[in-house]
Amino acid sequence: MSLAHDAQLAVGRATKAQRPARTWPEINNPTAWAVAAILLVMPLIASGFFLIEIFATTLILGTMALSLMFLAGYGGMVSLMQLTIAGFSAYMVAVFGVSGNANISLGWPWWLAVPMALALATAFGTLGGALAVRTEGIYTIMITLAIGAAFYYFTNQNWAIFNGHTGINNVATPHFWGVNWRADIPFYYVVLAVAALCYFAVEYLSRAPFGLALQGVRDNPRRMAALGFNVNAHRVAAYAFASFVAALAGVLQVWNYRQISPGSVSVGACIDVLIIAVVGGITRPIGPFIGALIFVLLRTFALDFLVRLGLDGNRFRLLIGVGFLAIVFWSSDGVIGLWQRWRQHQRREVSHSGGGRGHG
Amino acid sequence: MSRFVERHPAWALITIIAIAVALWLIFAVWPPGLEEAIGRKRVFLNAVFNGITLGGLYFLVASGFTLIFGLMRNVNLAHGSLYLFGGYVGYAINTSTGSWILGFIVAFVLTAVVGGLLQVIVFRRMEGQDLRQTMVTIGLSIVFADLMLWACGGDFYQIQTPNWLVGPIELPLVTAIKSSGEPVYLRYPLVRLVIFVASVAIGVAMWLALNRTRIGMIIRAGVDDRDILAATGVRIQLVFVAVFAFGAGLAGIAGVVGGTFQSLSPGEDIRFLLASLVVVIVGGMGSIPGAALGALIIGLAEQLGSVYIPTYAIVVTFLIMVLVLSIRPQGLLARR
Asked: CB count, 10 Å around CB of B212?
């Protein structure tokens, strides 16, 4: 709570003067337009490997982390079960849809299986949220972590629905209008569209009355309750929205890998989503995507990089852990926070060269 | 106790009936109809004993966790890593010297040192920032897990049970009557019983230390209001370091116990972290008796569940947590 809150205050103070509250902040930002243009023409620049393994994966992981960012940044609730919700939705797509495990999959067409999976996963996440909001603050982490871990062990044990530790393989991907939507380029655009939709939905919600009330609940639940807001209802509604976002990402993930197994919903993976969100910065929706890009790049190239430095290539997790610790130690707002502080520092030095009043 | 009966007569009655049924199931010779319905009594008794002894192990892990949380509001998600670290240290000592007891002592001391160092170097810098501390413990657990994987590899290790504890003993509990009329008694591994008794002894000692000694008084006062305690002149940082080291040391001991009961491998840290989370959520954060009750409930649920409904065993544990959270969000034995 305090983490997001402190950073939010600092950012709020810095940017309040520059932008009016009620427009899309991207409209007047040339960098945002440039990034959007690059993302749109990416298939011309990048080959299949980069397009899917780096950029599509980044967008999928970023969307998952975005749902955590929404809860943590605007609601003050750090939920470690966002990946579990995504994994649940992925499992449901595999169970209701078509897959290689014919004895488990019901064989529904994708346009029936996906809404079903989204609905069930959202219900699952909302129930988990309703459970988590019964306690406050630091307990949320524990309860959601317990839910995530319990789901992981359950998928490992249960063979009737989740097919034990082998998971469900050869999940069918959608194929209509003569397009194979899992081919590299169409799939990239599907992922990009979903990620953009979720990004702008979060951005919009954060300035809608609901989002503002949610931020009020984060900052002072007691006062909001005294003003007549139903604090717990706002929190549960936030969980419902975040669950839907995570469920969308889960559907994309199962289409991406075409299989789902307990390994993809392990506790380590749950924690990875938190790391992505925190490293990127949990005060603004762009943070999770930056964090996801760093994470995916590290995961893909750390091995080569470490070997080139003459170190053991298998120490990728160590690198991630140390990097995460460094971010938590030195920046309460992840990479965006570091960048913003650096920018402010530069500006201050330009405007009055003597003013060395560092803040930290 | 009598106040509980006065305030919730229905719950008290249900509890008494449940205890009576459980005692009957354990001590009576089962009629044939019951054996047909739910299986052999030996299986049931074994599951109960496994559950109780597993509860003892869970108590060792969770009591350190809950002690640290109660005093410092620090949710130490690296607790599972300390457990695994203690287990590896115990294994190393046990294989090099052959002494099981020495393994416990060294594991306790080393994990306590690690815990104390963590408190001094890391957590003291961010006192009062709950969420940041928790994030740091998450980062630490990742780093520790990878360092231990580096040092020990992905193999399974099992700590050798010492010779004087090997083998089962007969307990005076009848599991069945042979056709010749001779009773069959339950045979159960001695080492698990010894470890269970030891963990009960540790629990009682902790309870006595907390409730009957001066240092215990200081810790209890710190749980209630650490600012006022610091204002009365107690060197609270010293208390913090001592409690953190002791809690970590308990996790280390539990690691040696777990390595003897089961095995040590990467991933066990997460398992025991989950167990201690659920135990303290059920029992109540910061409460030692709560940790004992929670550990017993979770251990029994896990073992009975894995015998009678194998593929849904974890769901039982989880449902217990959900039930407790919906009836008493603060945990069964927490005061607030």
From this structure: 9
Please enumerate residues of A whose Cβ is less than 8 A from a Cβ of B: 1-4, 78, 131, 134-135, 137-139, 141-143, 145-147, 149-150, 153-154, 157-160, 267-268, 271, 274-275, 278, 312, 314-315, 317-318, 320-322, 324-325, 328-329, 332
A150 within a domain of the structure (yes/no): yes
Q: Which domain holds residue B235?
A: 31-327
pTM of the model: 0.82
The count of structural domains within chain B is 1
Q: Return the residue of B nearest to A159 by Cα.
A: B311
Strand pairing class (A175-176; A179-180): antiparallel
User: CA–CA separation, A269 vs B120, rounded Å?
Assistant: 30
Number of domains in chain A: 1
CATH of the domain at B307: 1.10.3470
Min Cα separation B322/chain A (Å): 7
Look at residue B335 in the predicted model and tell me its pLDDT.
Answer: 67
User: Is pLDDT larger for residue A247 or for residue A156?
Assistant: A247
Question: What are the tens digits of pLDDT across the range A280-308?
Answer: 888 888 888 988 988 888 888 877 777 77
CA A202/CA A196 separation, integer angstroms: 10
pLDDT per residue over A21-76, tens digit each? Answer: 556 777 777 777 877 877 777 777 777 777 877 888 899 999 999 999 998 888 88
Closest chain B C-alpha to A322 CA, distance in angstroms: 7
> Which residue from A207, A85, A96, A208 is spatially nearest to A148, judged by alpha carbons?
A85
- CATH assignment of the domain containing A116: 1.10.3470
